[in-house]
Amino acid sequence: MAAVTVYDHIRQNNIKTILLALLFPVVLTILIGIACLAAVAMVQDKEFLLNGIYLLLRWFPSLEASITPDNATFFAAMGYLTYAIVPIFVVAGLWMIVSLATGDKMMLGFAGAEPLEKSDNPTVYRLVENVAIAAGLPMPKVYVIDDESLNAFATGYSPKSATIALTTGIIQKLEPIELEGVIAHEMAHIGNRDIRLNMLIITGLGIFAFAADFIRLNWAFRSSKNDKNGLQVLLFFIIIALLIFNFIFAPLIHMAISRTREYAADATGALITRNPQALARALRKIQTDARVEVLDKQPTMATACIADPTAKKHEIAALSDLSSTHPPIEDRIRRLQAMG
Question: Which residue among 105, 153, 195, 333 is the one 20 to 30 A from 300 at the CA level?
């Protein structure tokens, strides 16, 4: 059997990421579809049923011949689904455009990061320059987070607008060759366009919570008017679907994507420096204290960092928990060591 190469790791993780990202719209559509079906089945109102079918036929008139009394409930639910999902996706799309434009500034602000000029720390600046050249990428901006922990993240819309942020702890406590491995890992996120994906996830998922709140207020308004029609029931079930998506499915998909991208960045970083052992040694030190206290109230930022910045010291070694956005560090070290 042929040995698994770094390129194999990168390709496999990229395929996994695409499939996992597709789960966001697919799962959301299925959940809202189930909500619409439950509402139509529960209301048992002919006018509500016919209105749903009418909404569907406005979009898909060719389906009229397929509708029978036996499947009318299903087609009515699909009609309501069409009119529920389109505005949600439109608003989510607009929100994500705003996120791409401002997400990097938000993330740096969350971390309290400050710009690092070449004169401030020539050694670190040269390390970033050298890794950027080795990766064939533009020189990113460099920021520093005033925290004694060991952590780092990259952000930006594209390689041309990218930023790498390093804690003071990781700068002071790692050997230069180990810090180079960390910088290469973050440069890999930039080259693999993970920074754009991270911004969308970190700043974009909030739109679905906003949508749930907006629909809930609409539902509460109708309830206060004693408006006991089918639309009120439909709004209630859509709220439930959005809450299930926000608090169960979205975090699980988010976690799976983040883990996949961390493996890919480790492999790509090792390819850039040709020294996977340096990153492995860096990760072993990072696992002793990766917590960045300023990010305790920003749990979604964890996906962008090289290690979970919200974990306490005694928790770092046990990051195999299902809720973690990162793979277990020991597993990452094992994979790097296996690369030679």
Answer: 333
